[in-house]
Each structure stands twice: as C-alpha cells, then as structure tokens.
Amino acid sequence: MGDQHGGRLSHASLQQAANWYVQLQDENVSDEQRHHWQAWIDQHPEHRQAWGYVQRVSQRLLPLQDANAQGAAGRALSDTRRPHLGRRQVLGALLLVGLGWGTWRATPLPQALGRWRADYATGTGEVRDTRLSDGTHLWLNALSAVDVRYNAEQRRVLLHQGEILIDTAKDPLRPFLVDTEHGRLQALGTRFSVRRETARTLLNVYAGAVEVRSLDGSRSQRVEAGQQLLFGAAGFDPLDSASAAREAWSRGLLLADNLPLEQLLDELGRYRPGHLGCSPDIARLPVMGAFPLHDSDRALGLLEAALPVRVKRLASWWVTLEPRG
C-alpha cells in the first residue's frame, strides 16, 4: 500500500504481474508463455512498472543463497536491465547482507540507507523498546528511524521515518524536543506518540502536554492529554481526540474503529515482508476490532471471518484480499 508498495499502480496490473511472475518461476514454463508475458509487458507502460515492482519485492525477500537462481522470471527480466550494476545497486546489495534480507520490503534505497545510518532503527515487523541515558522510555514502531542528540542544554530526538512513542523522564534543566521535517515538538512532562506521514506529522498526547511549533516558527499549538494534532507545511489541522491505536502498537495490537480496510492493511503490511493489498471493490469496507500485529496470518484470518472477503496468496510474499464470491 502507498507509493512504496506500488500504490500508484492499479490493483489489476499488480495482480497480473504477480500472476505472470509465479508462472515464469515454473521450471516447465513454455516459450509460448514467455511470448505472452512479453506481449503483456509491451501492452502498456503500467504493466512494465507493475512487473518491476513485483520483481523488486521478490528479490528482496528470496533467500540470499537463491539470489543467483531465481528461475525463469529473473532471467526473463534480465534482458531489460543494464549490463552492469551501478554503485547504488552494489551498495544496496551490501546493505541487504548487513541488515538482513527478511527486513526488506519494496523500500526505496534512500529510506533504507536512512534507517541503516540512524542511531535507532527498526525493520519490517520489528518494534524496539529502549531506555535513553536520562531514563526516557522510547519505543520505535516498525520501519522507523531516529537520531538522539543529548547535550548539556537540551534532549533532542530527530524522527527521520516511521513512528515513535515516548514516555519522558523529568529533567528541569533540559527540555525534551522531537524534530520532524514539519516542525518541532516540546514535551511538557508527558507520554506521546509522533508519526511521520507522507506530507505531515501526526501527534497524539496521552499524558501531560506537548507544545508544537511550525518549521518556520510562525505558528504554535499546545496539545493536551487526550488530544491529537495533524500538521504540516500548510499549517495545523483542528485538534481532535487522541487515538488509542497510536499507542497500542507498542503492545503488539492493531486497533481498528471503523477503519477502512485499505488503511488497516497498509498498517498491517509494516509487520510482514512482501506485498499486502486488496481489491478496490473492498478497500473502503469499515473494520472494527483488535488484531495481532506480530501474527499477521492470524490477523488476516480474523478479517476473512468477519468480512465478506477472502485471502488470496499467490506466494508467501504476495497476499491480497478479494471480494468473497
């Protein structure tokens, strides 16, 4: 889900590409099937983009020892590649070894590099729980990255990617700050979560208060316990009620209160490698309940039991929900 998961491509194109990939992996694939695959690729630019997305997902999730033997699909696409690897591709391959193959999804290289270089970072399905030097409790959600900068004047956390939950320790001499690309947050003896979204930052306060200042310093907003604020370059949205879901992930739960199915799968997809999507026909189905984040197959089974949907698995790393019928 989202752009990094092929979100700009149609569900139909992605499913067709995944079907072709599975067929071409068969060692008994025929020349006629390869011909039909090539005709499909040439039919529309989106088909080639969808194929590229499927291949990126598969390559980042197949075991390293199989990297040189990925079947007919890999050999077929090799004709469309450049004859040599560039520096970025080589660096990406080295990072795969260092970070662990299973933590990668279809993540752009700059984002993956950012996680690799950060002071604290998490991969797919990983939640990190740590204590900072002053006793502050910091949780990182899956696919998140932060840097911590403490000195004699201030305690500062830079959120580069993803989401954090913070329970601050008291220190009257040093303010506690969280910086995102959209502004600065100053904790006022508090427990709060901060989530970086595509163009905005989402703040939920559960205890105490947080003072938010826009990036240019022209606007500020005090957010009290039980309140939520979404803000970005365009300004601050009206205050809303804090969401329990933005704290529950630290306990391994995904809470849904009339959450559209597409959004729930986008969140669940942070906890399993590969592609997780749904047909546009069911994308807006409202979902209620609590789902286990660290057992996504069980979560999918609960969705299948509660909604008029079925889980379709083309491969262990390619799962979609379709209308039941």
Overview of this protein structure:
With 325 residues, this protein is α+β, with helices and mostly antiparallel strands. The chain has three domains: 3-115, no CATH class; 128-246, Sandwich (Jelly Rolls), CATH 2.60.120.1440; 252-323, Phage tail protein beta-alpha-beta fold, CATH 3.55.50.30. The chain is 30% helix and 34% strand. The chain contains nine helices and 18 strands. Strands 1, 2, 3, 4, 5, 6, 7, 8, 9, 10, 11, 12 and 13 form a 13-stranded mixed beta sheet that branches. Strand 2 (128-131) and strand 3 (137-140) form a beta hairpin. Helix 1 (11-25) crosses helix 3 and helix 5 (87-99) crosses helix 6 (109-117). The protein is elongated. The protein starts with 10 loop residues before the first helix and ends with a strand. The model is unreliable at 1-5 and 63-110 (pLDDT under 50).
Biggest sheet record: 13 strands, mixed
- The domain count comes to 3
Mean pLDDT: 83
The amount of helix comes to 25-40%
Distance between the termini: 24 Å
Q: What is the secondary structure topology, with strand pairs?
A:
Blueprint: H1 11-25, H2 31-43, H3 45-61, H4 71-78, H5 87-99, H6 109-117, E1 120-121, E2 128-131, E3 137-140, E4 145-150, E5 155-161, E6 163-167, E7 176-180, E8 183-196, E9 200-214, E10 220-224, E11 227-232, E12 235-236, E13 240-241, H7 245-248, E14 253-260, H8 261-268, E15 275-278, E16 286-292, H9 296-306, E17 309-315, E18 318-323
Parallel strand pairs: 5-7, 15-18
Antiparallel strand pairs: 1-4, 2-3, 3-6, 4-5, 6-8, 7-8, 8-9, 9-10, 9-11, 11-12, 11-13, 14-16, 17-18
